[in-house]
Design a protein that fits this description.
Strand 1 (about 30-40) and strand 2 (about 45-50) form a beta hairpin. This protein has four helices and three strands. It has a three-stranded mixed beta sheet with strand order 1-2-3. The chain is α+β, with helices and mostly antiparallel strands.
């Protein structure tokens, strides 16, 4: 059984992805990927998770660019979804990919120090 908030989250994900491809012209927004959207059950708030390919400066610049375009993004979501109340949009950097890369580097380091001797 799929909740309504999950369906709205999928639609918001599509809308924001399309806006990033063709609608937002902010030069601060770098090459970023929307990794997920979570919407509260009352459909009042949407948290958009994103990752940025680059360093910490690119992450901060992209987050600032997204936050400055928050009103435009919310207006576009409202026009596309036609809900009674358009959700307030919050952007949050997704640290799960960085954490996964950290774990992978630790495992590679352990594998490099292991000589395969089980005695």
């Amino acid at each position: 059984m799929v909740k309504r908030s999950d369906k709205v989250a999928e639609e918001i994900h599509k809308i924001i992805s399309e806006l990033l491809i063709k609608g937002l012209k902010d030069p601060r927004i770098g090459f970023l990927t929307i990794t997920g959207v979570k919407v509260t059950p009352d459909l009042r708030q949407a948290t958009v998770y994103f990752t940025v390919h680059g360093d910490d400066a690119a992450k901060k610049n992209s987050e600032a660019g997204l936050n400055s375009a928050k009103g435009f993004i919310r207006k576009e979501i409202g026009q596309a979804l036609k809900l009674r109340c358009t959700p307030e949009v919050f952007f949050k950097y997704d640290t799960s990919l960085d954490y996964g890369q950290h774990i992978e580097s630790i495992l590679k380091e352990i594998g490099a120090t292991d000589d395969g001797d089980d005695s």
